[in-house]
Design a protein that fits this description.
about 400 residues, 8-stranded mixed beta sheet, alpha/beta, about 20% strand
C-alpha cells in the first residue's frame, strides 16, 4: 500500500541531507517504505543487519557498497535496515557519511528509537535528518489532509461532503489497529493472532536483547496492566506495588516500552493553568485495539492521530510541537493540548458519546484563550458552540481528524 504522506517527507528531507533516518514501531512498514523509495533510484542496494550475510559483510568490508554495480551515472541509494543493532552503529554511519555523502544517498531504518540518540553526545550530529513512520491513521488513509498553514488558520474546520466511507475506515482501525498486517487482513482472528505474537516478540526479543532486562515475566505482566490504565495519569507507585518491584524498576521498564514504541506518553501542560498538576504522565498504546473499554480506546485513537501530527510537523521543521493533557488539582481535565514551543495552540477533548460541551473544556479555554475541539465517537452532525469570545467545535472524530496535516 502506497504511503505518499511519508514518501513526501523523505523527498523533503533528502533534498537537504544525504542521510535520512526513518524511525518507528516494529512491523509498521519501514522496510516496505524504504524499498519503495529505493526503487525510484536506478542504482539501489538494501543492507539488512538482521540478515547474516549482510551483517558479516559489513563487519568484514564496512564500505563494500562503494563497489556496487550501477545502471547509470546517477547517485546510488543505500538502505541500511535495523543497523542500530550493530554495537558501534553510530561510529559506522559517521564514517559512511563522511566518506560518501557527496556521491551516495543513505536511508537508515530502525525500531529501537533511533531518535533517542539525537540527544547529547551524538557523534552523528549534523549528518542526518529524521522522520517517524507510524501505524496507519485516519488522517493518512482518508486523503483529506490540509496544509499546516491552513490548519493553523482554521483548526475548527471539518471535512466537507459525505464522510460515510471515512467513518467505516475509523471503525476498521478501532477493530484492528493501524498496523498494516492486521489492518489489511480485515479479520478479527487475524488481528488477535498478530497482536499476541507481535508483543511477545517485542518483549522477548527486541527489548530483552537490546536492554539487558531479564525479568521478562514481570515485564509482560506490566504490559498486560497498561490497557486498563489508558486515559488516566499513570501512577508508577501503584504499578510498583502491584508488581512487587521498586519504583525505579517500573520506571525503567516503562522507558524501555517507550523506547521500542510499545507505548507513547504525554506530559501535563502547566503554563497559565491555575493549580495545574505537574507530575504524572498519561500513557497510550500504539496497538490501541488491545484497549477493551470503548471510551478509553476512542481516547487512545485520538491520541495517536494527534501524536502522529505533532511529530511529523516537528520532523519537517514546521516548528517545535508537542502533545500534552491539562489537569488541575480540582480534577478538571481536558484530554489533549497541542503546543508549539511554549505556546498553547489547541485543546482537544475526546468525549465519545456526549454532545454537551465539557465544563473543563470551557474552563481551560477561558484560561488559555485558544481554539477547542470536542470529539465524539458517535453521531453524524457537528456544531460550533460559543464560549465567551471563543468557539468550541463539537464533531464526530471522523469529521475533524482527517484534516490533520
Amino acid at each position: 500500500m502506497e504511503r505518499p504522506m511519508y514518501t513526501a517527507a523523505w523527498e523533503e528531507l533528502s533534498a537537504e541531507k544525504a542521510m535520512v533516518f526513518i524511525a518507528g514501531p516494529r512491523q509498521v512498514g519501514k522496510t516496505t517504505l524504504a524499498e519503495t523509495i529505493a526503487r525510484t533510484f536506478p542504482n539501489h542496494l538494501h543492507v539488512d543487519w538482521d540478515v547474516a550475510d549482510d551483517r558479516a559483510r559489513i563487519l568484514r568490508e564496512p564500505y563494500f557498497f562503494a563497489e556496487m554495480p550501477r545502471r547509470d551515472a546517477s547517485a546510488p541509494i543505500v538502505v541500511f535496515d535495523e543497523i542500530h543493532k550493530h554495537r558501534t552503529w553510530k561510529g559506522y554511519l559517521k564514517g559512511v557519511y563522511d566518506r560518501f555523502a557527496r556521491e551516495f544517498r543513505f536511508l537508515v531504518t530502525g525500531s529501537g528509537r533511533l531518535d533517542i540518540y539525537q540527544k547529547g553526545g551524538d557523534s552523528l550530529a549534523g549528518r542526518y535528518l529524521l522522520f517517524h513512520l507510524w501505524p496507519f491513521t485516519l488522517a493518512e488513509l482518508a486523503g483529506r489532509r490540509v496544509p499546516i498553514d491552513r490548519f493553523r488558520a482554521d483548526p475548527l474546520g471539518v471535512v466537507p461532503g459525505d464522510v460515510g466511507s471515512i467513518e467505516k475506515t475509523w471503525r476498521r482501525l478501532a477493530a484492528s489497529s493501524g498496523f498494516p498486517e492486521p489492518y489489511l487482513a480485515r479479520k478479527p482472528a487475524s488481528y488477535r493472532r498478530w497482536s499476541a505474537i507481535y508483543h511477545r516478540q517485542l518483549v522477548r526479543e527486541d527489548i530483552r536483547d537490546l536492554t539487558g532486562i531479564r525479568a521478562i515475566g514481570d515485564l509482560e505482566t506490566l504490559f498486560a496492566l497498561l490497557p486498563e490504565r489508558v486515559g488516566s495519569p499513570l501512577s508508577i507507585t501503584s504499578l510498583a506495588e502491584d508488581l512487587k518491584v521498586s519504583y525505579n524498576t517500573v520506571r525503567s521498564w516503562l522507558e524501555a516500552f517507550e523506547r521500542f514504541y510499545v507505548v507513547f506518553t504525554i506530559a501535563p501542560w502547566t503554563r497559565r493553568v491555575v493549580r495545574a498538576i505537574h507530575k504524572e504522565r498519561k500513557t497510550y498504546l500504539f496497538d490501541y485495539a488491545l484497549v477493551e473499554d470503548p471510551a478509553a480506546r476512542f481516547e487512545n485513537m485520538v491520541a495517536l492521530e494527534l501524536f502522529r501530527a505533532v511529530q511529523l510537523w516537528s520532523d519537517l521543521g514546521h516548528g517545535r510541537f508537542s502533545l500534552h493533557y491539562v489537569k488541575n488539582k480540582e480534577k478538571d481535565e481536558v484530554d489533549f493540548l497541542i503546543a508549539e514551543g511554549r505556546r498553547p495552540m489547541l485543546l482537544v477533548e475526546a468525549k465519545r458519546a456526549d454532545p454537551q460541551v465539557s465544563r473543563a473544556l470551557r474552563k481551560f479555554q477561558d484560561q488559555l484563550g485558544i481554539p477547542a475541539v470536542q470529539l465524539m465517537d458517535e453521531g453524524h452532525t457537528f456544531q460550533k458552540v460559543p464560549n465567551g469570545a471563543q468557539t468550541i467545535l463539537v464533531a464526530p472524530a471522523w469529521m475533524w481528524v482527517p484534516r490533520l496535516p
